[in-house]
Amino acid sequence: MEINTHEKVNPKLCGIVKEIKPGYSKIMLKTTQEMAVDKKGLIHGGFIFGLADYAAMLAVNHPHVVLSGAEVKFLKPVKINDQIIAEAKKISEQGKKVICEVFVKSNDIIIFSGSFICYILKNHVLNA
C-alpha cells in the first residue's frame, strides 16, 4: 500500500514502516543515545509519543490528516537500544473525524497505549 501522508518523516526519530494496510499500520523504532534524558539511558516520552502519533497518521493515511488530541498512558520505561513497535488501528470514523487506537510494545510487553483523535482536512493544515 502506498504511503499518502507524512512522507518526509525522519525514520530515525519516528520509526520505520513495517506494515501498512487500510486502517492499520505497524512502525518500529530503535531507540538511541540521543533520545536519552539521563545517564541511566531513560528515553524521553516524546519519542514514544512521536512513534505512536506517526503510526496513527499512517493508519488514516490521508494527505491532509492532522492530530487533534490524544489520551495516552505511559506504562513502562524505555531505555537506550530498545526496539519498540507501534501498532495503530482505525476504530471509528465519523465524517472527517477518525479515532485510532495505538499500542506500543517492547519485547511483546505493552509500554504505551493511546487513543488518537485525527481529522481529515479539505486542504493542508498550513493552507487552511
Q: Can you walk through the features of this model?
A:
The structure is a single chain. This protein is of the alpha+beta class. It has a single domain (11-127), classed as Roll (Thiol Ester Dehydrase, Chain A). It contains two helices and six strands. The protein has helices at residues 11-14, 45-60; strands at 16-21, 24-30, 65-74, 83-94, 97-106, 109-120. The chain has a six-stranded antiparallel beta sheet. A hairpin with a 2-residue loop joins strand 4 and strand 5. It is globular. The protein starts with 10 loop residues before the first helix and ends in an 8-residue tail after the last strand. The mean pLDDT is 97.
**Low-confidence segments:** none
Please, what is the average pLDDT? 97
Number of discrete helical segments? 2
Q: In CATH terms, what is the architecture?
A: Roll
Q: Give the end-to-end Cα distance, rounded to a whole number of Å.
A: 28 Å
Order of helices and strands: HEEHEEEE
What composes the largest sheet? 6 strands, antiparallel
Share in β-strands: 35-45%
Q: Which homologous superfamily in CATH is the superfamily?
A: Hotdog Thioesterase
